[in-house]
Predict the structure.
Amino acid sequence: MIGAVDRGDTGRSHSVEAAVPWVGRGHVLDLDDFSHQELESVFNTADRMREILARPVPRVPSLRGRSVVNLFYEPSTRTRVSFELAAKSLGADVVNVSASGSSVEKGETLLDTVRTLRALGANVLVVRHKESGAPYTIAKQMDIPVVNAGDGTHAHPTQALLDAYTIRDHFGCIEGLRVLIVGDIAHSRVARSDAWGLTALGADVVFCGPPNLLPATALKDDGECMPWPVRVDFDLDHAIENVDVVMPLRVQLERQEGNRLASLREYARDFGITRARLARAASRAIVMHPGPMNEGVEIDADVAHGGQSVVQQQVTNGVAIRMAVLYLVVAAAAQNSNGHKTPLVPAPGLSGKVPV
Amino acid sequence: MTSIRIRNGRVIDPSQRRYEVVDLVIVDGHVDGYIGQEAQGSFDREIDAAGMVVSPGFVDLHCHLREPGFEDKETIATGAMAAVAGGFTTICCMPNTNPTIDTANDIAFVFAAARRAGLARVLPLGTVTRGELGRELSDATEMAAAGAVAFSDDGRPIWDGRMMRYALTNSLRHHKPIVNHCEDPVIADGGVMNEGRISDLLGLKGQPPAAEEVMVARDIELCCAWPSATDLPYPPR
Ligand SMILES: [Zn+2]
């Protein structure tokens, strides 16, 4: 929502681009304005990327000669490595910049840093920042694609894309599925972006957690409703009945104890996903987790590594999804620079050539 | 005797219940009266204000001139320039400078710099507690005698209710208002915007109205419990 950049109409259901698979968006900052069709076009592109990744040499030259800069102001392993592998599989050059050990430590401002990276020849910026909205500030100033790799407690669109993609993989279709997201929703960028993406695809999403970890509007009874079309439940044993997807979020150990929660023991007792609780979900239910997991707190080890867990598939799918996102934003940028306003970008052929 | 006629402006002056296009005559720096646009007369100077609003100078009860200590942000002179550019002829400046405005000498410094700037009328506030540290009362009586118009630890709430009590009752000596930055910092908890739908949407930390209302409620009770010269300057929303 904030700082709409190169987006045009953001209406989801009545969008004029509804019939267009990819609206040539130059940036991917959140899923709040993605249409069902646009999400499907990302997934179809990711299907092609997965075929590439299955090859003996999982590499195509689609982004050869382009530089993808991973600018991470927050520590991250899986997301950064996932973007790096995605970019390399598309033939791009990858540069990793982290806040520590760079000019950021000398007090350089965010915008000065990105302008410098642009001047050095960056073609795509992948940004992770601890402040909500930082990638939007950058995108407004940049003539190259910006991909949000997680901003504060706001959004994490590629995680939400890989979550939806993994669910689609498993069930074929997301429409009508019941998805339960459990935990610290108030501070979760994953829950926020998942809510946008999954509801756009027709899922019935429930946020479940102790009141002190839910967004402020989840507790309001004065008519100020939550921004997302989701339901809220404080009681996990009730909320988990017959759901198709169970997604516990990471509890931030350092943040919660003795403040919003009496103890992690309290949390694990009432909101931990145990084998017994999972038995109340639909028999076909899958268990997801954005990682890294605190086993024994929000999820028991036997659930995390059990037969219903798709956590490893999520990680694997992350690379294909990020390849799709990088491919699509670069293709859109290439077309935009040719003067087309909302170009139709064909799904990549196996030759993987970017249209110019 | 010098006279000025301001022609054709829309005069807005609620104190005189005026909202009309009329000419205004000023003599020796004071409003002399209103005359019709057709009226004749000779004046030392005429100003055409067609399409403009003519009103009494605005008063800003709460501004920050940042001097001394933060001259990179603002000085008394630049703040006074901004004020008159926007129609403000009187501005009251908060004492959270570095050092803070704690003494009669500090008050005199602000007046001197304002006089050098020669623009808006600058009326300084002094601190309630020395250094705005909330530990010891500043000498409000001395500062009031030097021209302080009110007292505040602005930028920080007067967190200690007992300190607020004695600051209020001490105002019976100097008869100036106490201006509290009403914000319970623990309830505010580092929030950066109003708590609600938009803070949830943007993933920004919200600050609930209760953070302000709790301290306003306390100050109302203190004002009811003991006599003071003070109105509540931060009204509840
Ligand atoms: Zn202030």
